[in-house]
Design brief:
- There is one protein chain.
- By secondary structure, this protein is α/β, with parallel strands linked by helices.
- The strands form four sheets. The protein has an eight-stranded mixed sheet.
- α26 links the parallel β20 and β21.
- The chain is globular, with a radius of gyration of 29 Å.
- The chain starts with a strand and ends in a 5-residue tail after the last helix.
- The relative contact order is 0.07.
Length: 836
């Protein structure tokens, strides 16, 4: 593999370029940096020894490409080469290409197994791509010279619409080129919307010149023996949005431009989350953490302090992740995975350790310095998405700093509904907001594509960002109105503004009510089969939203929320009160309560789990944990049993992998029932017990498990990662975790067949249930019940009503024969039926 070396006067710049380039190819290409000099007062410069060591670290017989910024960087690189043998020098190439663009083009070409000369040519052409897109030079890059071999072969073509919100920006373009280079056929692509010429699909620079944006139509041709396979693979990328969020979900409103104020008290900003809010303002100002650098005599103590703070911060972030998963769903909560990865970054930790050891400074000062360096490196990047990662860097950096300095967390609890006014909100701050109290958000900074804005949209909180700083001087209690769709806010709005906004708010609420009204109808396929649509919930407020959205019951009550944000486990009475309250709202609809599922990605700080686990997803979690904590488990079972009187409550056990675990639980449940009988406490003796099927072992013995329980519920989130042996929180392999992969679908089919053969019902409560693209597959597989987040209930019911079971079964038969999740999605995209 060709190695890449980045030589720069600025270490911060080099780190940023390496981070950006590495993300293009998911770490496939070795990249080293030689940047800055060891002089705290004058750190800018280059060192030939550093350059030599960097080249040596990535040296390969395939070649090493060295990119430099300017001036002495070239001299240092030339001098460094002199340290190598003559044979080695022949394999090191100094390249005059632009640093940022050249690095990106080089790594993409290297990852595509190009030779060193082709990689260097791509790097040299990188600046032309930008110049062409900006109209500075003519698009000479678009000239295509097909090979003779390709001309002798048939040509196939497809037309594709780009749905990614930012079009083919850096990362999707890199995926496109990487896929195109896997095939022998020559791939050409043309932007029909912009009427460009055909360009080579295996060139990152030429693909960049197309200027592809959301909604553009592309013509992709392939000439060669594997043309059909190549086009199928490329079509799969588009069908899956290149692994990015579906544009229909949580996209920022279209209107987010600055508007000149035309009304008294009107402020213009960025439209970040749609909706209208009218309420008094309340300021939020996180406590400022003041850092003083001082000399220390024992660096080891300071390093230990940082490690302790990081350990605690990791537990806090994992708790935030768990709470966010319950409140906004696993997909959006994955935002906090990046923060966990930041804490584990060896480069950052080594830099902090080195500062303490070399400069004998305190932990707070060392940590702040390295966080500032990383934040600065993000701010210098050209990719807007990567720039916005700085919010996560600052968020997690401040968390560790707060722990080091002993500061208490900021309090965001409001007594009365209000519009929150702040300079900015971190993702952690936003995830903790209560939508019933925070009616709107107004900040002086931020963007519509920031993680905080995404969370606000998921929570349904209207938000206007980037308004004038004068808003920070408003007194608490001042009346404000904001429109998250137009990006405007009004201070002490005049009556006609209030009337207009109130009318808009009423119209929106009416539309929502109409949608909810149709959602209260049963979900029946076009040939008459009724499928139950339940809700996944994690709080009392969730169940109210679920019922209002048309839920026919609760298919999954995640009880972990009862155990979060506290210093000890909830008592039996506390749990009983919550279970009864939820059952009361459901008004005799079914309520499936999953017993405590902690461990893996959901630890609880006050529950001692012993030594850290190397593979927590494969460790002490779910039912395994509960069977080893009988007091905790029995307390929960007692509360569930007591709440069952007069309600349709069922118990569901998580992470079951053996019949032994089910039988052991049934023994414990019988003991608890006997204790309640002796105490004269009533409960539903006929309460049904089911299991989550989310471990491949459970699928393999589904027939045996079906003989032990009353129902199955398939958890495709965990089942997918276990089947594919891929941690869904690890960005390097998370793309493999797709519940539409034929291997996962066959597991689902096997589970359903075993359940129905035993005469028990089977539902599905993973995120796949809410994916309307998958609805015909789920219908064709024969599921009795789908359980989704409350907001998805209306559209899932509408999707069910569009399909026939017989056609759905035919789609399933075809889907199970596909060889990848991409091909299944491609099949589904072509099989979607029009509404009835």
């Amino acid at each position: 593999m060709i190695g890449i070396v980045i030589v720069s006067h600025s270490k911060q710049l080099a780190l940023g370029v390496r981070e950006l380039a590495a993300q293009m190819v998911q770490g496939q290409v070795p990249i080293a940096i030689a940047a800055g000099i060891e002089d705290p007062e004058n750190p800018l410069g280059t060192d030939p020894i550093q350059v030599y060591e960097a080249i040596a670290s990535v040296f390969s017989d395939d070649g090493v490409l060295v990119l430099m910024d300017l001036g002495s960087a070239l001299l240092s690189a030339e001098m460094a080469i002199e340290f190598f043998s003559e044979a080695q020098q022949q394999k090191v190439y100094l390249c005059e290409a632009p640093l940022v663009e050249g690095a990106i083009a080089a790594v993409v070409a290297a990852a595509s197994s190009r030779d060193i000369h082709q990689v260097m040519a791509e790097a040299r052409g990188a600046l032309l791509a930008k110049a062409s897109q900006l109209g500075v030079v003519s698009s000479s890059l678009s000239v295509v010279t097909p090979t003779t071999t390709n001309l002798e072969s048939p040509t196939r073509e497809i037309r594709l619409i780009v749905s990614n919100r930012l079009g083919l920006h850096a990362r999707p373009a890199a995926q496109f080129v990487g896929t195109a280079t896997r095939f022998q056929s020559q791939i050409l692509v043309q932007n029909l919307t912009r009427n460009t010429e055909l360009v080579r699909g295996d060139s990152i620079n030429q693909v960049t010149t197309l200027g592809v944006r959301q909604g553009h139509e592309l013509l992709v041709t392939a000439t060669g023996s594997d043309a059909d396979e190549a086009l199928g693979a490329l079509q799969g990328l588009f069908a899956n949005n290149f692994g990015e969020d579906n544009v229909a979900l949580n996209s920022p409103p279209a209107l987010h431009h600055q508007v000149t104020p035309t009304t008294h008290g009107e402020l213009s900003g960025i439209a970040a989350s749609a909706g209208v809010a009218i309420a008094p303002v309340v300021h939020y100002q996180p406590a400022h953490i003041s850092i003083t650098e001082y000399h220390v005599d024992n660096p080891d103590i300071e390093w230990q302090r940082i490690q302790t703070a990081i350990h605690t911060a990791r537990q806090e972030i994992q708790a935030v992740f768990s709470q966010a998963s319950l409140q906004i769903g696993d997909a959006e909560a994955a935002i906090f995975d990046a923060q966990l990865l930041f804490l584990e970054d060896p480069v950052l930790l080594e830099a902090a350790h080195q500062r303490i050891l070399e400069h004998h400074i305190n932990a707070e000062a060392a940590w702040q310095a390295v966080v500032d360096e990383v934040a600065t490196s993000y701010r210098t990047l050209e990719d807007s998405y990567l720039q916005e990662r700085v919010d996560d860097v600052v968020d997690v950096g401040q968390r560790v700093l707060r722990l080091l300095s002993g500061n208490a967390p900021a309090n965001l609890h409001l007594q009365e509904p209000a519009i929150l006014v702040a300079t900015d909100l971190t993702p952690s701050d936003t995830a903790r907001l209560d939508p019933t109290k925070v009616l709107g958000i107004c900040t002086t900074s931020g963007s519509a594509t920031s993680h905080s804005a995404i969370i606000a949209r998921t929570l349904g909180i209207p938000a206007v960002l980037g308004v004038d700083a004068q808003v920070l001087h408003l007194a608490d209690g001042t009346l404000m109105a904001l429109d998250g769709e137009s990006g405007k806010a009004w201070v002490e709005p005049e009556s006609h503004i209030l009337d207009l906004l109130a009318a808009k708010q009423t119209a929106w609420q009416t539309a929502q009510q109409q949608a909810r009204a149709t959602a209260h109808q049963p979900a029946i396929t076009r040939d008459g089969k009724q499928v139950s649509v339940f809700a996944n919930i994690g709080s009392i407020s969730d169940v109210q939203v679920a019922v209002a959205s048309g839920a026919e019951g609760v298919g999954l009550l995640r009880t972990e929320f009862l155990y979060l944000d506290r210093t000890s486990a909830p008592t039996e009475e506390e749990q009983l009160e919550v279970y009864q309250a939820i059952a009361q709202v459901l008004d005799n609809r079914p309520l499936i309560i999953r017993t405590l599922d902690v461990g893996g990605d959901k630890p609880l700080p006050y529950l001692r789990v012993g030594l850290p686990e190397a593979n927590p997803f494969l460790g002490w979690r779910g039912i395994r944990f509960c069977l080893d904590h009988l007091d905790l488990f029995k307390t929960q079972l007692r509360a569930i049993l007591r709440a069952s009187v007069g309600h349709q409550i069922k118990i569901m056990l998580p992470m079951i992998a053996s019949v032994t675990e089910v039988r052991a639980t049934k023994v414990i449940l019988a003991e608890v029932q006997a204790e309640l009988n002796l105490a004269g406490i009533a409960f539903d003796a006929a309460m049904k017990v089911g299991i989550m099927v989310e471990v491949p072992a459970a699928v393999a013995i589904a027939d045996q498990l079906a003989a032990e329980v009353d129902f199955f519920s398939i958890g495709t989130n965990d089942l997918s990662q276990y089947v594919m042996a891929s941690d869904r929180t690890n960005p390097r392999v998370a793309n493999l975790v797709d519940a539409l992969h034929p291997a996962v679908l066959r597991m689902v089919q096997q589970t359903i067949q075993a359940a129905h053969a035993a005469g028990i019902s089977v539902g599905l409560c993973g995120e796949l249930a809410a994916d309307t693209l998958a609805t015909p597959i789920l219908l064709g597989l024969g599921l009795d019940e789908l359980s989704v987040n409350p907001q998805s209930i209306p559209r899932v019911k509408q999707a069910i009503a569009r399909f026939y079971i017989v056609e759905s079964e035919a789609i399933v038969a075809s889907a199970l024969q596909q060889d990848s999740a991409e091909h299944v999605r491609e099949l589904m995209s072509s099989s979607v039926m029009p509404p009835a």
